[in-house]
Amino acid sequence: MPFFSRTWGLLRSLAIYHGIPWRAAQLRRFYAPVVPAGGLAFDVGAHAGNRVRAFRALGARVVAVEPQPDFVALLSRWFARDAGVTVLPVALGREAGQAQLLASEATPTVSTLSADWAQRAGATASFQGVRWSPGPVVPVTTLDALMAQHGRPDFIKIDVEGFELEVLQGLSQPVPALSFEFLAPVRDLALGCIDRLEALGRYRYQWSVGEQLRLQPEVALDADAMRAWLRGLPDDAPSGDILARLDGEAGAQAGGLTAAAIKG
């Protein structure tokens, strides 16, 4: 049964992230303002690799970070001949070491390193029916270590199911742009991410709901306004991603991001 459950979970993930014909073009338009040609992107929680493909199509080098062995095998096969993609079979956290993955075999993209997040998110309607069980012990490194080895990224996408703040605790310098997930019932994690980023530099913020790939609002918010928006969300609000850019980059490219969001 575990084998069939894992296989079904992988096939379902591939259908969701690669089965919509126009989604690849949407992703390219959405990320183009923050992932420059010739630049570097870190995809933390690369999962089924649709963002890796988008970043490569935009001409950026990509470091794909993914601790789940099944996804690592897929990514390694797909990008084996692409010198612009480095697949790392690790997780990220505040310090190097090891951690046990909580695996969701039927829905592998919500596997997590955070037992607290699994308990809290699992109690919500959005995760009804999702079950986690002890998975493999995986190596953990940090964003600082990745940057020391691969260079300072232009953009970091972080999608690690409740471990986003832990990942950012392993970053000691500002980066031009990054995104992290928010989920209303556990919004304290997203608020913590904002606090962490503001300790590194001054950022401007926008959000995108679900997989809509549309940024809101048109004019990026400062940290206080972003916190207020998060605190005002009802618990049943849909999840999404928050895009944060250093204040200088945000001002320079605001028009491009708005146009990309509308086209998406």
Automatic annotation (TrEMBL):
Keywords for this protein: Methyltransferase, Transferase
Which residues does the UniProt record annotate as the domain Methyltransferase FkbM?
43-172
Q: Pfam families per the record?
A: Methyltransf_21
BP term (GO), one: methylation
Q: SUPFAM superfamilies given for it?
A: S-adenosyl-L-methionine-dependent methyltransferases
Cite a single GO MF annotation.
Answer: methyltransferase activity
Do you know which PANTHER family this protein is assigned to? METHYLTRANSFERASE, FKBM FAMILY PROTEIN, SLL1173 PROTEIN
Q: What is this protein called?
A: FkbM family methyltransferase
Organism per entry = Caldimonas caldifontis
